[in-house]
Amino acid sequence: MTLDLSKFAAEKGIKYFMISYTDLFGGQRAKLVPAEAIAGMQKDGAGFAGFATWLDLTPAHPDLFAVPDASSVIQLPWKKEVAWVAADCTMDDQPVGQAPRVMLKRLVAEAAEAGLRVRTGVEPEFFLIAADGSVISDAFDTAEKPCYDQQALLRRYDVIAEICDYMLELGWKPYQNDHEDANGQFEMNWEYDDALKTADRHSFFKFMVKSIAEKHGLRATFMPKPFKGLTGNGCHAHISVWDLEGKVNAFADRAMPFGLSAQGKTFLGGIMKHASALAAVTNPTVNSYKRINAPRTISGATWAPNTVTWTGNNRTHMVRVPGPGRFELRLPDGAVNPYLLQAIIIAAGLSGIRSNADPGPHYDIDMYKDGHSVTDAPKLPLNLLDALREYERDEELRRALGHEFSSAYLKMKHGEWNSYCSQFTDWERHTTLDI
Ligand code: ADP
Ligand code: MG
Ligand code: MG
Ligand code: MG
Ligand code: MG
């Protein structure tokens, strides 16, 4: 039964709803709707001028309606009179195929048709920085190897514990928080769930972390590589596939190497096969490519992949199988669109299952040190343009994500690349002036 948002408001004392949708670049767009008006909006959606956000639409298009999915509603733990609700975009009463949450729902349904339920966890790393964005916020956080730094973690207790308290209150089952490998960097982990739920929580998490950081006079950034020489913000995804009831993990088979079932291996095969094209979505910004393929950081390792390889419990490869019944994709970064991340994982994985894809050999080497010995594994794209071209070439993946999405995404992202290339930089002046 669909939750009645108007009743929900009355019961919880909610005065306003944020009807929120995510555009192609991951921007969260919302209207603040008084509870008195939510009944009509729940039925018809809130109207937006789609062109004003990062969607491939023109100013002449009719209204985009964001129709709330009431099952996603979350009362803001830090502002209880407001509730956030994720919405699905329609236009002329039709679902908008390029809208990320609409597309993810379609892929979840496709997996269900094959009897599969994809469950994932994400690890969205972030930095707490000064409000003006220029430096990290803690002047004492200067260790060469700052990972798990006890002292620095406790100096940010007020922010981290407040966010973790809220996740506990929301029932997300958070289980650990730590200082990560870069100065000023943190990670908070909560339990995995169905792909759509994880995408909604991932979106809300970013909104919550930024909001609470701002409340404390700071700023949170998920930018892939905010500081040269420091480890970047990854957003690893852990993936398992279950039966429709969610009782049997179809990826688990303790008799197989790494405890990964034959079906799990073909899903992984799909990820490996489409990896270079995947990067166009998992590493969606110009800055993303300064995290992957990066030189060694001050801490000693980037913790990001540079090549399309997989392994057991070893963090130097693109895919790690940390234990039975799941694998970890270490490619995505903090700029990834939460819905597109889940959608492209499902699309690539289903393609792998359908074609019985072989993930190829696993390598149990230190890729950072001995990667050169794996000569036939493809290098990951070196920049956004490379990745977009890989995506263009990958007809199967393009089709799986749908023509409407693929053409819109490519058009918008090529626009971003062209905007980047039109910049005149100090570097080119410096290297070319006296040529
Ligand atoms: P690490 O840093 O070692 O990669 P974390 O504990 O930070 O691991 O994150 C692990 C993520 O994987 C969490 O979101 C967790 O809920 C998720 N996870 C654990 N088991 C599974 C599983 N079977 N399927 C999908 N995700 C899982
Ligand atoms: Mg107006
Ligand atoms: Mg982690
Ligand atoms: Mg981490
Ligand atoms: Mg990880």
List keywords for this structure.
single chain; 435 residues; Ubiquitin-like (UB roll); Creatine Kinase, Chain A, domain 2; binds adenosine-5'-diphosphate; binds magnesium ion
Q: What value does the Rg take, in angstroms?
A: 22 Å
CATH fold category name of the largest domain: Creatine Kinase, Chain A, domain 2
Q: How many structural domains?
A: 2
Bound molecules: adenosine-5'-diphosphate, magnesium ion
Which stretches are low in confidence, meaning pLDDT under 50 for 5 or more residues running?
none
> Biggest sheet, in brief?
7 strands, mixed
Find the count of extended strands (DSSP E, 2+ residues).
Answer: 17
Topology (elements, then pairings):
Layout: H1 5-12, E1 16-22, E2 28-34, H2 38-44, E3 46-48, E4 64-68, E5 74-75, E6 82-91, E7 94-95, H3 100-113, E8 117-124, E9 126-130, H4 150-155, H5 157-170, E10 174-179, E11 185-190, E12 193-194, H6 195-215, E13 218-221, E14 235-242, H7 262-273, H8 275-282, E15 310-311, E16 319-323, E17 326-329, H9 338-354, H10 367-370, H11 384-393, H12 395-401, H13 403-421, H14 426-432
Helix pairs in contact: 3-9, 6-9, 7-9, 8-9, 8-11, 9-12, 11-13, 12-13
Bound molecules: adenosine-5'-diphosphate (ADP) and magnesium ion (4 copies).
The site of adenosine-5'-diphosphate (ADP) has 15 residues, from strand 8, strand 14 and strand 17.
Domain GS beta-grasp: 12-94
Family: Belongs to the glutamine synthetase family.
Cofactor: Mg(2+)
Structural overview:
The structure is a single chain. With 435 residues, the chain is an alpha+beta fold. It folds into two domains: 13-98, Ubiquitin-like (UB roll); 106-426, Creatine Kinase, Chain A, domain 2. The protein has 14 helices and 17 strands. The strands form three sheets. Strands 1, 2, 3, 4, 5, 6 and 7 form a seven-stranded mixed sheet that branches. Strands 12-8-14-17-16-15 form a six-stranded mixed sheet, covered by helices on one side. Strand 5 (74-75) and strand 6 form a beta hairpin. Helix 7 (262-273) packs across helix 9 (338-354) and helix 11 (384-393) packs antiparallel against helix 13. The chain is globular, with a radius of gyration of 22 Å. The mean pLDDT is 97. It binds adenosine-5'-diphosphate and magnesium ion (4 copies).
